[in-house]
Every structure is written in structure tokens, then in C-alpha cells.
Fold:
Amino acid sequence: MLFKHSWKSKTVVITILTLGGILMVLPLVWMLLSSFKTDAEILRIPPTIWPDAFTLDNFKKLFTEMDFDVYLWNTLFVVFMSFIGLFFCAMAGYGFAKFKFKGRRYLFYLVLATMMIPGQLTMIPVYLELNAMGLTNTLVGIALPSLVGAFGIFLFRQFMSTISDELLEAARLDGASEFYIFTRIVLPISKPVLAVQGILTFIAGWNSFLWPLIIANDEKYYTLSVGLQLLKGQHASNYALQMAGATFMVIPIIIIFLIFQKYILKGFNVTGIK
Structure:
């Protein structure tokens, strides 16, 4: 009797979760398929899910009429600079985790305290500093503030604290330099947290919108998110083109997530994030 009751409960739960999953995925599927439709087909009543004939004209227009190739290059540059910052975050996390120096604890608390300050609050001071250095309306000015983040330092510090001190001491006794230990021993061990922070860094850089919009006055420095908003304003009635732009933004994130998803829970569990 108990087994029968348990089987029915599992069936109900699985059914509810399946229906909920379908409802969550359906808008995404509709957006992806609509990007291959004509605008007339999207406005058809009743609406259709599967396109009558797949077309790539919408994606071609993104690069011929909306300069999405420029926006893509700018976004990739921001992402690349963010990955360089990932290396700096790892170095800082390693320093806080494995080196003992005066004021280490208080300096780490100070780094954590910056996480409590909303990013919108620091935008004006950062803008004024970059303007004084002549970096406004440049790709470097867009990428520089996201080079190092307190959350990344915290994540690496938590993970690297679990690395055996004996392993590092053995490497030092063998004559290895600190840079060699960091690049050849610590970083390979830190693959799970590198994958987690890499995914978060890629998503943040790929979706960057507010800061590029503030710092860039010239359209040639816009990122994909700003370009997508510009597309929405200039082609408000062309829903097929908007769906193509949104699909172009979403697909890379989905691919990156699917490739590295196995590291996410593993990395979060090891670093102590619940």
C-alpha cells in the first residue's frame, strides 16, 4: 500500500515538473524558430510554432543593416579582457588563501565589503576617473572596470584554501618558483572553479549593457546588448528581425552552459556556496 502511494506521488510530481518544464522552454523554442520565419508568418493568426520555410534573411540583415559584426567584435573584446581579469582574480585569491602577511584578514574583509556596494553607485566615480584618463568612448574604458571583481577573488580564495599546503611546500623544496607553482600546480587543480567563474565571466561580458551604454558615445563602440536595444528601437515592427537578434544573443550562452554545466555544481560545492 505504501509502495502504491509512493508511486502515485512520484507520478504526480514528475507530471507537474514536466508540464512546468515545457511551459518554461516553450517561449525560448518559439523565439528560436521565429528567428527563421518571415515577419508576415510571425504575425499570422493563429500563430505557428514550426516555420513554413526556414530562412536566414533575418540573420543576414543583422550584419548588413545593423552592424552586428561591429557589436560582436566589441563584445568579444570585452569578454576577452574579462578572461584576462579572471587570471588576476585567481592570483589575488591564491594570495589571500596561501600567503600570510600583515593585515591579510582585514584586507580580505575590505574586498568582501565592496560586494555590498551596488554597481550603479560607483558608475559615476568610475566614469569621472576614466574620463580624466581619456578612456571614455573607448573599448578599453568599457572593459577596464570589469577586469577584477570581488566575487571572483572570493570564489578563488575559498577554493584554493582547500589545496594542501604540503603539496605547495614540496614544490618549493624542489626549487619551484611561486609563479611556476601557481601556473603549473594551483591553476590545474582549480579547474572546477575556473570553469564556474569562466561561465559567469562570459555571461557578464556577453550581456554587458548599462556600462557600455554610459561610457560609449559612438555607435561603433556598442556591444551586442546595446545593439539589440537599438534594433528594437529602429525596427520595432519587424518582430522576425528582433527574434533573430535575441537568438544571436542567447545561443552562445546556452552552448557555453551546456559544455561546462558539469563543473558548476562541483565548483560551487567545493567553494562552499549553497
Remarks:
- The mean pLDDT is 84.
